[in-house]
């Protein structure tokens, strides 16, 4: 049984290399293309070129790789689907139909792992207390307790404009937009 027989797809071309795949897309403008990530000339290179030149064509990568980096690279290259070799014909048909219809597909186990890794990276890049000077940490503690710049200036025997300057630095270091977000971050960092 072929995809054509099973899924209602019309196979308009087959390509053995990345260059042939790009040429086939240019010649036939299919709704969806299935690329082997490890095809000669690089399926990722073909995906990137096809996504750049023919953005309406939905790309599904077929691969044996369950590596997070390969998945991320494929998605960055423009793939909207990532199917593992060994997937059943029914599943592959469903993936192709979904992606051709505008959806995206990543195997659930891989999606969960990649999302967890991205969240870990995000957590690892969150600024730590050590990024703040002692004075900035002290001011941030006051902010976390709801004090205004004027109140903080009085408490620390500083000018209000000095507190404003410190607050600008604190907001930048914490990568937040305002003092409310800074106060929330202070609580997250254990400064309140």
UniProtKB/TrEMBL annotation:
Q: Which GO terms describe its molecular function?
A: DNA binding
What broad taxonomic lineage does this protein's source fall under? Bacteria, Pseudomonadati, Pseudomonadota, Alphaproteobacteria, Rhodobacterales
Specify the superkingdom.
Bacteria
Q: What is the protein named?
A: Two component transcriptional regulator, LuxR family
Q: Which GO terms describe its biological process?
A: phosphorelay signal transduction system; regulation of DNA-templated transcription
Ranges for domain HTH luxR-type: 125-190
Instruction: List the InterPro entries hit by this protein, alphabetically.
Output: CheY-like_superfamily (IPR011006), NreC/VraR/RcsB-like_REC (IPR058245), Sig_transdc_resp-reg_C-effctor (IPR016032), Sig_transdc_resp-reg_receiver (IPR001789), Tscrpt_reg_LuxR_C (IPR000792), WalR-like (IPR039420)
Q: Which organism is it from?
A: Palleronia pelagia
Q: Residue ranges of the Response regulatory domain?
A: 1-100
Which key words are in the record? DNA-binding, Phosphoprotein
List the PROSITE patterns.
Answer: HTH_LUXR_1 (PS00622), HTH_LUXR_2 (PS50043), RESPONSE_REGULATORY (PS50110)
Which residues are recorded as modified (4-aspartylphosphate)?
36
